[in-house]
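Suppose a colleague, Dr. K., hands you the sequence of a protein chain of 375 amino acids and asks what its three-dimensional shape might be. Before reaching for any lab equipment, you can write down a predicted structure in token form. Begin with the sequence itself:
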Amino acid sequence: MNNHSVAIITFHLWINGNLNYGATLQAFALARVVAEMGFPVQLIDYIPEPLPANDIFRSVYRRIFRWKVSRRIPGAKRKGFEEFLRTHGYLSRNRYASLEALRANPPEADIYLAGSDQIWNTQIFHGELYRAYFLDFGDPKARISYASSFGSANNEKKYDVEIGNLLSEFSHLAVRESSGAEIVKRLLPGTQRVETVIDPTLLLEDYTPFVRSVDVQGCLLAYLFHPSETEVDALKKTARNLGLIPAVISDVSSAVFEGCRIIPCNSPAEWLGAFRGASAVVTNSFHGTVFSILFEKPFVSLLSDEQGVANRNTRVLNLASKLGVEPQLLNQYDPELWTGRLQAPINWETVRSLLIEERSRSKEYLVRALTELKN
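The predicted structure, expressed as tokens, is then:
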């Protein structure tokens, strides 16, 4: 085992008051891979509460935020996510709700690692800069990043100087998208030390030990953010064309889902089970696309011109380009087109070969970043 300990900060549970399967799984995967490399590792249990600038309203705002979370998320789902992380996720003993708390009692580690997902996307935080995700606390021997994301090339520029100063403290920088690499090069002129690497979920080769079986046999599974009637109608018609049962991952039943089987996944393990067990997948999610590929399912990944989702398109387009699955990306809600793409064979041997190359290159970066410490 390596003597250098690692503390990872990333989205691992909540994003703006919502539990997120992809966030939890990417955090878990990164911690798992670092541990498999022989490093003692912890996931910093940092869940910042969104706070207004005016201190007078902070206490009230905290209560409103917590009330909204407790009302929106079923108790079984909250428990399922937390149990998954406690069992598999290397969570730190302390939970932190602010940068001030992290600075007052920073996690003990030799290396701080800014993890993946859109932790550097200020748009997620309604235009605010959360400096904790840039490792602005503690005194480690090294600060590094792995697959951190700005979301899109259109990130706010008012923090350019501040972010540039924070990134200059990193010994190794790796982002998830090529657009993110361009942002780093703009913020740190002359730097040649930024790399692009794959999402941590793609680093793990076998999810079998972490899957809980879900009854979705014979289903065309949909995992959709903000599903519309148009999308669900196309899903049902496509399922009919393929002789499959339309199924939707959702916490609640809705008139929009009439005629579909509802699949409530109360933990990341069940969500994995739904993807592994489905006959085919339709999704507009980045991590939905990732696990469709990892479980080698016929899939369609939906792009959108809707305002605010350009960053999601960027992530999926980057992934599809690297693994050669661009034909599975569609921006039309046409059941006949969906049916054709789901029936068309995917050359999984080629995909596996490309993934092995990307995985090897990304792991090489991670090992190098974790071992080349500052003096």
